Structure prediction request, 437 residues.
Amino acid sequence: MKKGNPFALLPIVVFLVLFIAVGAYTHDFYSTMPAVVGFLIALVVAFAQNPKGKKVSFDEKLNAVARGAGDENIMIMCLVFVLAGAFSASVKAAGGVDSTVNFGLSILPGSVAVLGVFIVGCFISTSMGTSVGTVTALAPIAIGISEKTGIPMALCIGSAVCGAMFGDNLSMISDTTIAATRTQGCAMKDKFRENFKIALPAAIVTAVLLLVRTMGTSYQVSGDLHYDFIRIVPYLVVLIGALVGLNVFVLLISGTVLSLAVGLFYGDFTFLEIFGILGDGIMGMYDITVISILVAGVVSLIRLNGGIDWLLYIIRRCIRSSRGAEIGIAALSSLVDCSTANNTVAIVIAGPIAKEIADDYHISPKRTASLLDIFTSVFQGLIPYGAQLLYAAAATETAAVQISSVDIVPYCYYPILLGVSALVFILFGKNTSASEA
Prediction:
């Protein structure tokens, strides 16, 4: 067993120190120090290093970066990101987002308003593939419920966050799902089924808690809730198609074409405007695509310099079984997410290491992908400096009662229960070996 070189992990340490220090100093973990800049600095540091007791030429290092960045899974993942961006932009331009939100709210019973926000959030986030987008859409509704009923603002906003996090690791077009399945080499439908077994109990208990906490209150959603079910169809096509195992490229292209056709039919945009819509959607995926390529290059140099061997050496000394390996993967992904405050980036970083651990202990790719996605989502829905809670708190700035992201954390029932459900699943569930997958 190779002991590796712990100093080869310096690029990741440099990134984390820069990212956390700048974010803590400015109270902004997203704008002041963009992750893409941090990883570029990490890449420079990685280039300056060499394997222990060996000198490697610059050309060899450059070739290693190119091999890592050009890996088949990385390239496919980036292409899927691009197509997902195009689909999301086209379906939004065609009114799919508004119709999905209004459809959910129009069937919201007034007697269970807060529970309804959670349920609608689950549906919207699974359809849209974005937890932040779901929080943005539902936060005004949650604020209105709090102001009209007297239910604590943090509880109402927390219900929206809970619903948003439900679909974050289940949606077929979520960037976390794309990253988890591509880094582990499994089908989206298999990972979805694995996740759903863990997510469903957590969602049911969350629903019961919200219902009990808000019994006896009533609120009727006001405003124009007009929707066209046809505008929602592209979401359903992608979701159902992914579940039955259709190719993700075919699905996203078909969903994009269908969305654009719906938009043209309703006159939401002209034919010439289509190109701008697709361009904006693709550019929206710029950061995560470039970050994925840079991270792959950094990890490749870390591997060349012995950093991955050292990590695996330490992990193997602590792990004695496949259950222990699963807990190790859960802990690794959780720690990286808390450090980066971005669950997709966390999956891209932890994914290659998790795959090697899974291969050593014969854990199926779908199980590993599920663990990566679940535990990064658990902490992404709990860390007060994550985008989801920051956006949720920011929505209350013009409300009668303002709250901070820290105030929302105790009411994030679903992420907490999802973590508990996943741990129970690891400790007492049936192990799925790679040969059984």
